[in-house]
């Protein structure tokens, strides 16, 4: 395992010396171990991806119906159906193909080159050519290209947040560790996919490719089967029901017609027409267009959806399990509290922008205060981080903790680039895990900064207890005074107070040095660190943390309003995680916080009993995340998982909805996800939730619209045959109704804006399917009303002795207009059209107008009269048709009004939004 071995033993076992591998040996090992790359999931070919869009039951039924229609001579209807199916499939294919191409462009995690020692010479090679035994050189900012054992280090720290979730850089050492040391605590190892945050070093490669810790996590993905989305399951179930109903309709109508003496061929053609009418062939297109438009809106909101149905899945989500570092927080250490002159100051501003102010008890505190200036001077000079502006954005170089100090000082007007030149560093005593502090020697003689001493000065920073112990004096009330036990106790209380707020506390001190303590004597070891860092003058404390994103708290509250539980799962410490979770509103009263070790002690049954009350998981590993996801799914929850690290990838794939970070996310996490946030912003998920809910609402409303219209057609035909032995509609008229009413209006319904209270509704139960009993009852009720309208016209026409052509034209036109009124009913199943606003969905208005114009052409243009068996209608005919058709709309408006669902809620929502 190498971490528990001395360096000489590691070199011997790996067959390498300090000269590195020879080129010949490296070639042999490359042949043996393979290239240093992760195996990707097998790519689906473009052809297979395209064909896969046409495998649903509903699509197969539609293709079969089109073939039958073509064989029976109904080429127009066959072409229309095939075109609709092809359009739906092509749109879905294009979206998935574009998304996959975009994913490839996001690949930026693994370093393309590595610096190695081979043949005794330092050189750069492609990282994929690394082999076990290679000596790699590590510098600040480098991506680590393989797992390796540290053999040399100088203040080496690595950012392992992508692997462990730990937000603070890890100090590395060369010492052998006990064999029972957990992976996260193996400080003499560096891992592929992480990066060097500070310092430099040399390490010998111990594992490459799929044998790395990164690769093992990637391998876990192959054992996890991605769940089908609720929408896919619901549509397939609905398609099967429609298919069975279609066969029954065809058989029943054909047999009934033959029994009444109609020609067998005519009845078969007529039955097929009714069957096609019973199938909402626009459904796949509407679903695809609705999803596609939702995806386009999401891209504008910084979310890249890899699979179209994933948007709907997020809309059904009950639980969002989120990583902390970089997802809920900014991944930018920020100084928030400063203690100087026995006073606690609050620092405003977040991130790396040097903009902020200082406040004491809500009163602004002057940045020019000499105690604050002295603290900042030491924090800047005893510091190796840098702050710079690139393309208008403030960025850092080096350790984020040290960078936070530089940023805080810049807020006080002290800028590192200027101070480094004015007060040059003459020597240093580097930080070590044993000493827990760092010191620098600088000459302070200029007067640009208020400082109580001049000459050669030692500045020190480090762990509060260590720094405080080394101090015998304090800079207080503008003077250097003796540090009494009482004041020490007071400072210790301030340290505890800051630590209780989950702040990482750092202390600072300084002392003037006698001229006989020269930097040269320090460098040569003639003067020890203990001599330099004794009798120090305490200057103050700074408390920092990785702050939450400002917009996340609002997003989490919106999730709570929407009935969605947010759970934090992080590798960070319990106190820090709990404090952030409380601030964000994740951890509420009576909620539980659990560590990974505490989770390990729980049996599956006991854990599943508690899982709904646990809001924070701290110090967890990848296996823990999978266990949390699995526990929620067993209880029937639809689970979304957000994350950016390799450690998140298995859970991202196992979750119903995996959401990866596009900027900081690793390749593995992106491959495992269903959606990628291109701005790494948790708040973007709220928009996706709303989009998903609205898409499903529109799909459900369209289906209900389809049930009502198709039910009306079928009932009119069946009752007319049974009661009067009359064909109320010709086969071509049925097909025309099906074409124009299931064409543009449903497409327009798919772009209906969200209901005003959609994010105050609880997540839908995915087990209930696309269509519930409520939708079926509503659809059948409106369908029955349309049938009643048709029968009224039938009896009215028969009483007046109208010829069969006019009778059929009247019913034909009535059904079309009734269904156009019905289209407005299903903009919302809750709100009145007048409450929504008649023109808030202009595409529907245009679709209805276009459909009406097409119907008028079929009635009044001679060519189409011959094709569709219609005759012109008089003004008196319209006086009957229009009032009857409008009752479809009037009846639904009355139902919405008397149910009391729409108007009161809508008024409340408008008040809230105003």
From TrEMBL:
Residues passing through the membrane, by range: 49-72, 78-97, 241-262, 268-293, 714-737, 776-798, 844-864
Enzyme class name: hydrolase
InterPro entries reported for this sequence: ATPase_P-typ_cation-transptr_C, ATPase_P-typ_cation-transptr_N, ATPase_P-typ_cyto_dom_N, ATPase_P-typ_P_site, ATPase_P-typ_TM_dom_sf, ATPase_P-typ_transduc_dom_A_sf, ATPase_P-type_domA, Cation_transp_ATPase_P-type
Example GO BP: export from cell
UniProt cross-references to Gene3D superfamilies, sorted A to Z: Calcium-transporting ATPase, cytoplasmic domain N, Calcium-transporting ATPase, cytoplasmic transduction domain A, Calcium-transporting ATPase, transmembrane domain, HAD superfamily/HAD-like
Domain (Cation-transporting P-type ATPase N-terminal) ranges: 1-74
One GO cellular component, as annotated: plasma membrane
UniProt GO MF annotations: ATP binding; ATP hydrolysis activity; metal ion binding; P-type calcium transporter activity
Keywords tagged on the record: ATP-binding, Cell membrane, Hydrolase, Magnesium, Membrane, Metal-binding, Nucleotide-binding, Translocase, Transmembrane, Transmembrane helix
Pfam families to which the protein is assigned, alphabetical: Cation_ATPase, Cation_ATPase_C, Cation_ATPase_N, E1-E2_ATPase
SMART domains (UniProt xref): Cation_ATPase_N
Recorded topology in the membrane: Multi-pass membrane protein
Subcellular location: Cell membrane
Domain of life where this protein originates: Archaea
EC numbers, comma separated: 3.6.3.8
Protein name: Calcium-translocating P-type ATPase, SERCA-type
Upper lineage: Archaea, Methanobacteriati, Methanobacteriota, Stenosarchaea group, Methanomicrobia
């Amino acid at each position: 395992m190498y971490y528990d071995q001395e360096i000489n033993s590691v070199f011997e076992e790996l067959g390498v010396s300090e000269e590195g591998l020879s080129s010949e040996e490296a070639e042999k090992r490359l042949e043996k171990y393979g290239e240093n790359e992760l195996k990707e999931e097998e790519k689906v070919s473009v052809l297979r991806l395209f064909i896969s869009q046409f495998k649903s039951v509903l699509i197969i039924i539609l293709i079969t119906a089109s073939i039958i229609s073509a064989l029976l001579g109904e080429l127009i209807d066959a072409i229309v159906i095939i075109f609709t199916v092809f359009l739906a499939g092509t749109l879905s294919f294009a979206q998935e193909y574009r998304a996959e191409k975009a994913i490839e462009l996001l690949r930026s995690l693994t370093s393309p080159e590595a610096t190695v020692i081979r043949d005794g010479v330092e050189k750069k090679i492609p990282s994929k050519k690394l082999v076990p035994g290679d000596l790699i050189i590590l510098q600040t900012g480098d991506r680590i290209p393989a797992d390796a054992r540290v053999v040399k280090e100088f203040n080496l720290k690595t950012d392992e947040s992508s692997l462990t979730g730990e937000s603070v850089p890890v100090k590395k050492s060369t010492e052998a560790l006990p064999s029972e040391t957990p992976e996260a605590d193996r400080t003499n190892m560096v891992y592929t996919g992480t990066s060097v945050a500070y310092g430099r070093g040399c390490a010998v490669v111990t594992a490459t490719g799929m044998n790395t810790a990164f690769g093992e996590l990637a391998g876990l993905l192959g054992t996890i089967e991605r769940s089908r989305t609720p929408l896919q399951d619901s549509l397939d179930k609905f398609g099967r029901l429609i298919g069975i109903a279609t066969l029954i309709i065809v058989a029943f109508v054909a047999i009934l017609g033959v029994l009444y003496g109609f020609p067998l061929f005519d009845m078969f053609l007529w039955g097929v027409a009714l069957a096609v009418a019973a199938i909402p062939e626009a459904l796949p297109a509407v679903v695809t267009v609705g999803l596609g438009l939702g995806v386009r809106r999401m891209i504008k909101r910084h979310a890249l959806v890899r699979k179209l149905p994933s948007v709907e899945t997020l809309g059904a989500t009950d639980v969002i399990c989120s990583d902390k570092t970089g997802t809920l927080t900014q991944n930018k250490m920020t100084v928030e509290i400063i203690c100087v002159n026995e006073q606690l100051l609050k620092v405003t501003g977040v991130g790396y922008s040097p903009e902020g102010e200082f406040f004491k008890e809500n009163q602004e505190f002057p940045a020019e205060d000499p105690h604050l200036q002295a603290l900042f001077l030491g924090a800047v000079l005893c510091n190796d981080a840098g702050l710079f502006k690139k393309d208008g954005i403030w960025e850092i170089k080096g350790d984020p903790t040290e960078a936070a100090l530089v940023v805080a000082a810049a807020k006080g007007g002290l800028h590192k680039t200027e101070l480094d030149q004015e007060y040059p560093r003459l020597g240093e005593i580097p930080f070590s895990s044993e000493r827990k502090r760092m010191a620098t020697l600088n000459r302070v003689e200029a007067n640009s900064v208020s400082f109580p001493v001049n000459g050669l000065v030692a500045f020190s920073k480090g762990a509060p207890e260590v720094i405080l112990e080394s101090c015998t004096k304090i800079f207080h009330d503008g003077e250097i005074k003796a540090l009494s036990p009482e004041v020490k106790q007071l400072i210790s209380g301030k340290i505890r107070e800051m630590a209780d707020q989950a702040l990482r506390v750092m202390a600072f001190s300084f002392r003037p040095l006698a001229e006989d303590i020269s930097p040269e004597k320090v460098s040569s070891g003639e003067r020890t660190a203990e001599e330099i860092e004794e009798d120090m003058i305490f200057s103050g404390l700074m408390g920092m943390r990785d702050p939450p994103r400002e917009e996340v708290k609002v997003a989490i509250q919106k999730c709570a309003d929407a009935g969605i539980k947010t759970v934090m799962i992080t590798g960070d410490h319990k106190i820090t995680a709990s404090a952030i979770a409380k601030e964000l509103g994740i951890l509420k009263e009576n909620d539980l916080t659990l560590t990974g070790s505490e989770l390990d002690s729980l049996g599956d049954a006991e854990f599943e009993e508690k899982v709904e009350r646990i809001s924070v998981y701290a110090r967890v590993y990848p296996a823990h995340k999978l266990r949390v996801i699995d526990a929620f799914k067993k209880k029937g929850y639809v689970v979304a998982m957000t994350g950016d690290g390799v450690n998140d990838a298995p859970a991202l794939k196992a979750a119903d909805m995996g959401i990866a970070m596009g900027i900081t996310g690793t390749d593995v996490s992106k491959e495992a996800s269903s959606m990628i946030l291109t701005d790494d912003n948790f708040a973007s998920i709220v928009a996706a939730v709303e989009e998903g809910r609205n898409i499903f609402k529109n799909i459900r409303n369209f289906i209900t619209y389809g049930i009502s219209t198709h039910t009306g057609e079928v009932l009119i035909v069946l009752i007319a045959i049974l009661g009067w032995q009359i064909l109320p509609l010709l086969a071509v008229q049925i097909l025309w109704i099906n074409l124009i009413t299931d064409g543009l209006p449903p497409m327009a319904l798919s772009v209906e804006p969200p209901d005003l209270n959609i994010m105050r509704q609880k997540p839908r139960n995915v087990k209930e399917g696309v269509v519930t009993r409520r939708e079926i009852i509503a659809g059948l009720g409106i369908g029955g009303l349309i049938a009643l309208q048709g029968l009224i016209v039938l009896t009215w026409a028969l009483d007046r002795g109208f010829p069969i052509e006019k009778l059929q034209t009247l019913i034909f036109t009535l059904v079309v207009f009734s269904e156009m009124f019905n289209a407005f009913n299903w903009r919302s199943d809750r709100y009145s059209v007048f409450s929504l606003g008649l023109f808030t969905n202009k595409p529907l208005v245009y679709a209805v107008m276009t459909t009406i114009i097409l119907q008028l052409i079929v009635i009044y243009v001679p060519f189409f009269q011959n094709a569709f068996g219609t005759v012109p209608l008089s003004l008196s005919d319209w006086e009957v048709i229009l009032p009857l058709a409008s009752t479809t709309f009037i009846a639904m408006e009355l139902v919405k009004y008397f149910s009391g669902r729409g108007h009161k809620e809508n008024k409340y929502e408008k008040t809230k939004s105003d």
